[in-house]
Amino acid sequence: MAIGESPTAKRRRLGLLLRKFRTEAKISAEVVSQHMDRNDAWVSRVERGRTGLRRLDLERLLDLYGVDGSVQAELADLAKAGRERGWWSNYSGVLSRQYSSYIGFEAEASRLLTYDSLVVTGLLQTEAYARKVLQVGAPEEDRAVIERKVEVRLNRQQRLTSENPLRLWLIFDEAVLHRVIGGDLRAHVGQLDHLVKMAELHNVRLQVMPFREAGHPGMLSSFTIMEFPNDPTMAYIEGLTGDLYEDAPESERYRVVFDNLRASALGEPSSISLIKEVAADLRRDT
């Protein structure tokens, strides 16, 4: 499957359309679940794009909603694409369902607006830094599992340098510059140097939230806003007990927060200068 053709995003698009048809038909999720002999949770998973849909089930839903045949044929193709497997399915043995879903959405996104307060975002991590992050985050995991996860992270990064590259606007807290993961100074300095290099790409913008900004909305949570070429914007919030996805209009509050962060953070030239300064200080200690 080519870059930008994500089955996860196709399922979401289908789910959004099905929810629209159900709402327009003024049919409750409870009525749908009874009609399909399923529970309400199944209806929710389908409309949120969290599960694939068989053609027979799709046809029954569309008949219930009164959708005509020409539209049914188009949606059948969308449902078929949603049942395909993305490249990340080859790593299903080491990836959680939540992480796989995120990768699927990321693969279709045209732009990400990201705020990170703890570590460098995965799309800009070096191999050595990613390995340290994964080892510290899951010290009980086998080395082979860690290496497979590192592969996934590096594969994701190919979108930044592809023919139609993903646009990334990253803001992270200054603490990220000083937090040496696993005590590996060499890996950390290499990561800072990599940030400077990646910021040279026309599709990557990078800002640092300085310590002097004692209070700002990003203190509450790291998050990513995903923009898609054909679908509504989505906000993703990673949590310790589970991931949260917010569709419009709820996702718009995260855009407001991001705009406030962007205004409070250092400008791009000053951010790069700070990264270089911290790297130079740490390099003297390696």
TrEMBL record:
GO MF term set: DNA binding
Organism the protein comes from: Actinocatenispora sera
Protein's UniProt name: Transcriptional regulator
A Pfam family per the record: HTH_31
Record-annotated DUF5753 domain positions: 100-277
